[in-house]
Write a structure and sequence with these properties.
There is one protein chain. The chain has helices at 3-25, 38-47, 54-65, 70-77, 85-113, 119-157, 162-171, 203-206, 208-226, 236-251, 258-269, 310-323, 331-343, 372-378, 386-395, 400-405, 408-419, 422-439, 448-452, 460-485, 492-506, 517-532, 550-572, 578-581, 597-613, and strands spanning 189-194, 197-202, 276-279, 296-302, 345-356, 365-368, 381-384, 536-538, 544-546, 585-588, 591-594. It is an alpha+beta fold and 622 residues long. It has three domains: 1-117, no CATH class; 119-275 and 282-289, no CATH class; 392-613, no CATH class. The strands form four sheets. A five-stranded mixed beta sheet has the order 3-4-5-7-6. A two-stranded antiparallel ribbon has the order 1-2.
Length: 622
């Protein structure tokens, strides 16, 4: 098989994957209609012991098709099932794993029977799936141990005071350590209780049976690849080196060596540049305190549905921003970020096989690795999943909360973006989502996150805002050029603002979801700017309405640029993240609220409404 034939066959594999996903998404049609397909929704509800009605069938659809846990958690929290909440959530995970494994087995079977790939890459598909089974078995013990036990215990001991918890962990040397014995910004270990005290241990010590099974599967995977050749990309040794280093990292018992071992995994992973990307534990939002890296395992294949224009626009603007700053004062950061932008690898992809922690969240986009010392030498990869994101949005049912919280024009215009013109959606995705991922690479030095996390450990709570704001400011700076080269994207600026407003409001629902608190904090900062610029306001029905005109749009551009310039200076000077976040928020018990009283009132109103009607479907069909 020649390379051109294999890459053409990738298109067929992606079509197979899309059709399987469409079949899953079609479950939405049977939430409030009787048909044989409803048996899947009802089977799920029986499996987790929930009654059957429109609301619970929506929960079943959302959990199976979109992998979302929030609707189920919300339902349990307001029902009489609170005492066995974790059990029901765990059962839902087991059902979803089994359901998707059967579908992915069909995909692999068709690939093999039609000989769409070389033997080497067929083996990769088969054994990513086999290792997956072992990773799936690790996730629940991992989450129940760290999130549902250790973190809850810490919260009880310190009355939900994050600052006190971080101080305790630091004073007792309970963070993983970096190469120079400094506290690291993530953990590859977990805490256990021994003789009444917390002790840090490796995953292999805490989850020995689960790690043993993963390693056994990895050994077979490595051995099988050793007996084959990659005649297309000549990447055999890269894959074997990568899988071998994952095994070594999983087996490491010395917690002082874990950061080094997993950094090596990132290093060798960066050498794999084929359309077949096997991804390992990459992100760590699940653990609020020690940022323990969650079990993650998937296979992404390249799927170029459009040509991204972001990089060239970013380079132009990055240099322009630095013209306003004395570069010599921050030359290390300037050079580090500039090299990151130039050498980043962008993969528009489809996540055809996905497992473990990924059975609890939706794909959107990602920039990795998180390790900035690795980035300094090997740079980063950005993954974007535009086609599956659009497909999921188009299939999702309309929700009652949207029609209550947004005025009718704003909501109608947002839905036009999803259904009228895919090119418009992809252009917005390129600017806001891929731009967001590139935004993560900017204004950094190799030690920026560590220093900005020193006191409060809330770097991520401003980093997500910095990334999204970059996408917007980059568009404002290059608007004329972008609009000229994309004449079909009529009213692009208006559509970008509509999409941005909709996303910001919907992020407010994560107020009490610790693992993704950074996105909630991001939304509070955005709301402050959106209200300041008068681009949005609250009407007499307590709805968000858009006030888009030339005057307000120009003001929005100016206000965003000013606030973005402010955060740049925080990053370049490596000041603690709270200095920036405290300008927009206050800490109320264990969650954040807007400093602005008008915005705070709206945020409280939204969240109370969300808890009441989030699972309610809107009967409007368009």
């Amino acid at each position: 098989m020649e390379q051109i034939e294999l890459e053409n066959n990738l298109k067929e594999i992606i079509e197979l994957y899309k059709n399987l996903q469409l079949g899953i998404n079609d479950l939405v049609n049977w939430i409030n209609k009787e048909w044989k397909h409803r048996i899947i929704l009802d089977e799920f509800l029986d499996f987790i012991w929930l009654e059957k009605n429109e609301e619970t069938r929506y929960i079943a659809y959302s959990r199976i098709a979109n992998l979302k846990e929030e609707p189920l958690i919300l339902y349990i929290d307001k029902s009489s099932f609170i005492e066995n909440k974790i059990e029901k959530i765990d059962l839902s995970y087991k059902y979803v794993c089994d359901f998707h494994s059967e579908i992915q087995a069909v995909l692999i079977s068709v690939i093999i029977s039609k000989k769409l790939l070389t033997p080497f890459y067929i083996e990769i598909f088969k054994w990513v799936a086999n290792v997956w089974l072992a990773f799936n078995w690790l996730f629940l013990p991992w989450r129940n141990h760290i999130i549902n036990w250790i973190n809850k215990d810490l919260e009880n001991k310190f009355e939900n005071d994050t600052d006190k918890i971080i101080q305790f962990l630091s004073e007792n040397n309970l963070f993983d350590l970096s190469y120079d014995w400094e506290e690291w910004d993530r953990s590859y270990s977990a805490l256990v209780m021994e003789n009444g005290e917390y002790v840090s241990k490796s995953y292999v010590d805490i989850f020995p049976n689960e790690i043993k099974i993963i390693v056994e599967e990895l050994d077979i995977f490595i051995n099988n690849l050793s007996n084959l050749e990659d005649e297309i990309y000549n990447a055999k040794e890269n894959y074997i080196n990568y899988l071998t280093n994952i095994k070594y990292a999983l087996l490491e018992k010395d917690t002082s060596k874990l950061v080094e071992k997993w950094s090596k995994v990132d290093e060798v992973w960066m050498d794999i540049k084929t359309p077949f990307q096997i991804c390992h534990p990459l992100e760590f939002y699940e653990d609020k305190y020690r940022k323990a890296v969650a079990p993650e395992w998937d296979l992404r294949i390249q799927n170029t549905v459009f040509k991204s224009d972001i990089k060239k626009n970013i380079l132009n603007m990055y240099e322009a921003f630095y013209d306003e700053i004395w570069i010599d004062d921050f030359y290390s950061s300037y050079n580090f970020s500039l090299n990151s932008i130039k050498r980043v690898q962008l993969y528009l992809s489809s996540p055809v096989l996905y497992y473990s922690s990924e059975m609890t969240w939706l794909f959107s986009a990602q920039v990795v690795p998180n390790d900035e010392l690795v980035t300094k030498m090997y740079w980063k990869k950005i993954f974007a999943f535009p086609e599956i994101v659009l497909q999921n949005k188009q299939k999702a049912p309309f929700m009652k909360i949207d029609s209550v919280i947004f005025d009718s024009k704003l909501l109608k215009d947002y839905r036009k973006i999803l259904f009228w013109n895919n090119d418009t959606f992809y252009k917005i995705y390129d600017i806001l989502t891929i731009g967001h991922e590139y935004g993560h690479t900017l204004w950094l030095d190799f030690d920026t996150e560590i220093l900005m996390n020193k006191k409060t450990w809330i770097f991520k709570n401003i980093e997500e805002f910095k990334a999204t704001a970059w996408g917007l400011v980059m568009y404002f700076f290059n608007e004329e050029l972008i609009n000229e080269t994309n004449p079909s994207t009529e009213k692009l600026s208006y559509n970008i603002i509509i999409d941005h407003i909709y996303r910001c409001i919907n992020l407010l629902k994560y107020r009490e979801t610790n693992e993704i608190e950074p996105y909630y904090c991001e939304s509070l900062i955005h709301l402050d700017i959106l209200f300041e610029s008068w681009i949005i306001s609250i009407n007499t029905d307590n709805q968000i309405t858009i006030n888009y005109n030339d005057k307000n749009y120009k003001k929005l551009q100016k206000v965003y640029t000013n606030h973005y310039t402010k955060i740049i200076n925080i990053y370049l000077k490596k000041i603690d993240a709270w200095v920036f976040l405290s300008d927009y928020t206050i800490k109320n018990n264990w969650h954040y609220l807007p400093k602005n009283l008008e915005i705070r009132e709206f945020v409280e109103y939204y969240y109370n409404l969300y808890k009441k009607i989030w699972n309610n479907l809107d009967n409007i069909s368009s």
